Amino acid sequence: MERIPSKSADLSEWYQAVCYQAELVSQAPVRGCLVLRPYGMGLWERLQSELDRRFKETGHENAYFPLLIPESLFAKEAEHVEGFAPEVAWVTEGGTEKLAERLAIRPTSEVIVGVMYAEWIQSYRDLPVLINQWVNVMRWEKRTRPFLRTAEFLWQEGHTAHATEAEAAEEVARMLEVYREVAEDICGVPVYTGEKSQSERFAGAEHTYSIEGLMPDGRALQSATSHELGQNFARTYDITYAAEDQTLQHCWTTSWGMSWRMLGALIMTHGDDRGLRIPPKMAPTEVVIVPIPRGDTSALDAAVRELYARCKAAGLRVKLDDRAGQSPGYKFNEWDLRGVPIRLEIGNRDLEAGVATLVRRDKAVKEDGQKQQVPLAEVVEFIPAVLEQIQHSLFAQAKTFLQDHTLATLDRAEFLRLLKGRAGMVDVPWCGLPECEAAVKDATGATTRNLRRPARAERCVPCGEPARWQAYFAQSY
Amino acid sequence: MERIPSKSADLSEWYQAVCYQAELVSQAPVRGCLVLRPYGMGLWERLQSELDRRFKETGHENAYFPLLIPESLFAKEAEHVEGFAPEVAWVTEGGTEKLAERLAIRPTSEVIVGVMYAEWIQSYRDLPVLINQWVNVMRWEKRTRPFLRTAEFLWQEGHTAHATEAEAAEEVARMLEVYREVAEDICGVPVYTGEKSQSERFAGAEHTYSIEGLMPDGRALQSATSHELGQNFARTYDITYAAEDQTLQHCWTTSWGMSWRMLGALIMTHGDDRGLRIPPKMAPTEVVIVPIPRGDTSALDAAVRELYARCKAAGLRVKLDDRAGQSPGYKFNEWDLRGVPIRLEIGNRDLEAGVATLVRRDKAVKEDGQKQQVPLAEVVEFIPAVLEQIQHSLFAQAKTFLQDHTLATLDRAEFLRLLKGRAGMVDVPWCGLPECEAAVKDATGATTRNLRRPARAERCVPCGEPARWQAYFAQSY
Fold first, then answer.
1. What is the ipTM of this complex?
2. Do residues B345 and B262 share a domain?
3. What's the angle, vertex CA A440, arms to CA A439 and CA A443, rounded to 5?
4. Which one of A118, A209, B59, B407 is least enclosed by Cβ atoms within 10 Å?
5. Per the CB < 8 Å rule, is B325 touching A125?
6. Closest C-alpha among A287, A274, A296 to residue A351
């Protein structure tokens, strides 16, 4: 196993090394594309199941819309196509035939969904329509960074249609809260929720809301978005309904999405110099059992198999690493790299004493509480509480980092200095004007991440105009 | 609600009408593509969860490989590309740029998986590799028939690599058995399992095995396949491993897939003139409660809500249809069309008598046992046994049909007559020669479906050459 670079020395190098060496992904022989390997898919499946359950609990159903969108349909919503056309991959040939019209591989599905909703929705009785889909999408990218920037990626996209603006706004807020909950309570990644500025809004939306985490290098990472599309798509694609009073009305539509980018946030937030640290609720493997054989191992073999069976029966996601060709030390490093929350070590002497050594991945080597001896008879009952503690401690560490790196200022020079130095989330009263945001971007590379409440001072810190919002500025991924 | 055509009068018309009117799918504004609507997705999600659980129990993990495959890689396996090139959709432009090389949208993923396995597999310790993926694939088709023939479809494809031919053969047989079990025990569709003939084999495989159902029009429907790829892909894509004796060996690889075509088999097999009949294990909704309100409904409203809550608490997939705008009769027809296995009706008089009327979808109208009164207090405990009975009765009906339409003959004239008349699966001793199969196809439109055991007579019924196999011939979808 190669050593991974130090996380604090070079986050980007560390990140790539961890993603490849922990076998989350492999580079594919296709520009900008990655293979999601079984361990990475294990993370994605955990995220999917947590999100999908919440989508269904909030009344949504899954569906599947086609991959390809004819150019003529795509081009109808002017603002939308302008935003997405530069990054579309086009199908122009099918079998041996040149196509009469180019077909876009979906970069997102508002267009095709809009066309179908126009057909499906007739009456107020058909509303709301609450649909989600789990799909691959494609945005032509030159650079590749696992989970953060790839030409093809996996995500879910929710698309809903409502009778009133108020209902659509409620939906958008509800799903943003689902995203916040999954980011914080499941992935252990603390985020700020708020509205995106006009420049950072989704192409074709009236309002875009986001969750934004802060990575260890002081750059923000947008991890999910939720959009009020107003009646824009409804007008373009003719999504109308007969109201109770028999008038014909346009629907109010929304869309919202979270992609495997969330996994990138999780990896960067929690990892350390030994590799991944995965919050237990997201861990494909919560517990790994590593026997330490010496001399006659027949009793030890039986004991670890019995322990493994008890963990399984208790519903734990557990692995027994009884590979013959590798030393225990090698295995410890490998499971540390893979970020498994709890390791149980058992040697012959432990077995005689009736104990196992429980090692927590959230603690540093030799930190208090990293290792403890637990009676073998009680270890399975003991584990859920420890997993709970690890979940909380990883979140708490990240939350402290976010709080320590959220900096409020009313001084323009300090504001610019903090942004240039990637000091974190810089919280200032802001005017809301696109030209002000563009000037800050030119000067520092930073933009607003999101806006969360009315300004707490009269003047915009960057430009001095009247302030409207309290905004988080930061450099971002 | 429009009436659907009679199933026996025109299966094809009936099938299309049911698929669209039961809201399983919609036509999309993209040639050859369909939208899978929430109810259709509900079926697919049931199938996915049944298959995925079995894949994991047999040691497989999920992963995700890229959608696009560069033409140069695709072209390496000559037989494979010859089979698939005529139906590939090609990406030739990305953003504003013409690509130097065409990229195929995967029609199947042996190629890209092969390239990655060559990278991942070094030593015998890395074997076996047992991976599955759930993805969309594309095969350029002009005609569209829901679930049976569409340009884009959803499926799973398993890809495994092994050290020995025997292990690969075992894997292929194991997954064929998983498919048989899911087809028969979950979807209630009886199938024949066996090997495909040389002409019907997967492009690039050494042996292909299939499960084949028989539709009510006497045509067979191939519902899943499992392939021994031998060392063909391993040689082309250089998938090698260092054996224990230090020699370099090529792997033996397999692939196996089931698509949403299985849903087409389920629909055609079980449906009747009133619409779908869904086996309970596949039903997105197992039970629908329809109140029959008259006069003061407050007591009835409370009772149905309480019943709904009890069904939910018992883990049943249940819906309460308390829509105000529709009559009970309209609702009965709609849920019949959608094939929900059990309907519970409750009116005010039932409520006074403390009963509900339980209606079974597997029985004809007014057939013995179609309706029965069940005490409200016991109905939830009563339902699982009825679901079990419905599951069995649908399978038994289909099994009887398959048996009645499996016809053995040793007479050539009768053989040809049965095939031309779409009499069903025609079971004959066969030589195994491609030219014999081609002649039968020319004469009747039928081909071998699969071969299951050594011939039970000396001579091939179609051509008189020495017989090797007992083969099922039929026209097919």
1. 0.96
2. no
3. 85
4. B59
5. yes
6. A296
Give the closest-approach CA distance of A470 to chain B in angstroms: 36
Q: Note whether B51 and B148 are same-domain residues.
A: yes
> Which candidate from A35, A64, A115 shows the least CB-CB separation from B64?
A35
CATH of the domain at A376: 3.40.50.800
The sign of the torsion formed by the CA atoms of B215, B133, B125, A322 equals: negative
> Does residue A414 fall inside a structural domain?
yes
Assess contact for B362 and B394: CB atoms under 8 A: yes
Q: Mark yes or no for CB contact A140/B95 under 8 Å.
A: yes
pTM: 0.96
Determine contact: A59 vs chain B, CB below 8 A. no
Spatial neighbors of A418 by CB under 8 A, at least 6 apart, are: A407, A409, A424, A426
Mean pLDDT of chain A: 96
A213 and A318 within one domain: no
Q: Do the domain assignments include residue A2?
A: no
Q: Are residues A250 and A330 in the same domain?
A: no
A441 occurs within a structural domain:
yes
Do B413 and B348 lie in one domain? The reply is no
pLDDT in tens, A156-198: 999 999 999 999 999 999 999 999 999 999 999 999 999 999 9
Please indicate whether, in this complex, the C-beta atoms of A92 and B93 are within 8 angstroms of each other: yes
E-strand stretches of B163-284:
192-195, 207-214, 220-228, 240-242, 248-250, 252-259
In whole angstroms, how large is the CA radius of gyration of chain A?
25
Is residue A383, in this structure, part of any structural domain at all?
yes
Which helix (H) or strand (E) segment is B232 a member of?
helix B232-237
Pair B222, B262: CB distance under 8 Å? no
With CA atoms as reference, report the closest residue to B213 among B182, B240, B242. Answer: B182
Per-residue confidence band for B1, with pLDDT thresholds at 50, 70 and 90: low
Nearest to A136 among B45, B67, B73 (CB): B67
Mean pLDDT of chain B: 96
Residues of chain B in contact with residue A93, where contact means CB-CB under 8 angstroms, are 89-90, 92, 102
| Nearest CB to A38 within list B36, B93, B131 | B131
Distance of CA B282 to the CA centre of its chain: 12
* Residue A130, CA atoms < 13 Å, CB-side half-sphere: 16
The reply to whether A400 touches chain B by the CB within 8 Å rule is: no
The shortest C-alpha distance from B90 to chain A (Å) reads 5
Q: How far apart are CA B330 and CA B333, in angstroms?
A: 5
Which of A80-84, A188-192, B418-422 comes out lowest in average pLDDT?
A: A80-84
Task: DSSP letter for B200, please.
Answer: G
Contact between residue A118 and residue B25 where contact means Cβ atoms under 8 Å apart: no
Q: Does residue A84 register a pLDDT over 80? A: yes
Q: Indicate the SS3 state at residue A472.
A: strand
- Asked if B96 has any chain A CB less than 8 Å from its own CB, the reply is yes
Nearest CB to A33 within list B35, B63, B68: B68
Point out which residues pair with A257 in neighbouring strands. Answer: A157, A225
Q: B209 is in which domain, residue-wise?
A: 11-270
Looking at the structure of chain A, the number of domains it has is 3
- On chain B, the residues whose CB falls within 8 A of the CB of A323 are 125
* Cα A126 to Cα A134: distance, rounded to the nearest angstrom: 23
| B115 and B209 in a common domain | yes
What's the pLDDT tens digit per position in B145-177?
Answer: 999 999 999 999 999 999 999 999 999 999 999
Window 189-248 of A: residues touching B by CB (8 A cutoff) are none
Please check whether residues A375 and A436 belong to one and the same domain: no
CB B89 to CB A87 under 8 A? no
Determine the longest span between alpha carbons in chain B, in angstroms: 85
Contact between residue B159 and residue B131 where contact means Cβ atoms under 8 Å apart = yes
Of the three residues B320, B355, B388, the one that is the final residue of a domain is B388
- Which of B357, B388, B419 terminates a domain? The answer is B388
Residues B414 and B384 in one domain: no
At residue B394, does pLDDT exceed 70? yes
